[in-house]
Amino acid sequence: MDQYALKLNPKKSAKVYGRALRISTKSSVTVCKAISRKNLQKGKNLLQDVMTKKRSINGKYYDNVTKEILSLLNSAEANAEFKGLDTGRMIIYASAHKGFGFMRPRRLKLRGMRRKMTNIQVVLLQK
User: Fold this and answer.
1) Which of 40, 48, 86, 119 could form a disulfide with 90 if both were Cys (CB 3.0 to 4.6 A apart)?
2) Is 14 a residue whose pLDDT tops 70?
3) What is the mean pLDDT of the chain?
4) d(Cα 28, Cα 34) in Å, to the nearest integer?
5) How many CB atoms lie within 10 A of CB 50?
6) pLDDT digits (tens, 9 = 90+) for 25-61
7) In terms of pLDDT, which residue wins out, 4 or 93?
8) Rounded CA separation 127/116 (Å)
9) How many alpha carbons lie under 13 Å from residue 99 in its C-beta half-sphere?
10) Domain ranges of the chain
11) Is 17 in contact with 117 (CB distance < 8 Å)?
12) Is the pLDDT of residue 120 over 80?
């Protein structure tokens, strides 16, 4: 069972957990802070505008991160619709945490390359 950053009421919330995503934790934290506590539609519009480079977050376009978080938001929205919740009144709560890291193997005396992993929690609460 995953530990979520929020205490949830299962009747008014939908959640999704992205584990071991190959994206930067630092960039993920920035994007999650930008969309947290926003309406679901506004958050999705912001991420789509960042992907098409119409808007930026802190002066940067986080392509890989926005693509992954947008897919998680779509999944959470589908979970909310399945539960019968009103998606027009959903508020986003997103957080990113460092996942496990591993070294990409190399041969002989060469050093391996450290790979990035990030865990992302997305919770939609009905207000």
Assistant:
1) 40
2) yes
3) 92
4) 10
5) 24
6) 999 999 999 999 999 999 999 999 999 999 999 999 9
7) 93
8) 35
9) 21
10) 29-102+113-126
11) no
12) yes
Closest listed residue to residue 72, CA positions, set 25, 19, 110, 29: 19
CA distances from 5 to 48, 93, 121 (A): 25, 9, 8
Q: Output the pTM of the full model.
A: 0.89
The residue-averaged pLDDT of 96-107 equals: 82
φ and ψ at residue 60, rounded to 5 degrees: -130, 155
Position 34, amino acid: A
Q: Please give, one letter per residue, the 3-state secondary structure of the chain.
A: CCCCCCCCCCCCEEEEEEEEECCCHHHHHHHHHHHCCCEHHHHHHHHHHHHCCCCCECCECCHHHHHHHHHHHHHHHHHHHHHCCCHHHEEEEEEEEECCCEEECCCCCCCCEEECCEEEEEEEEEC
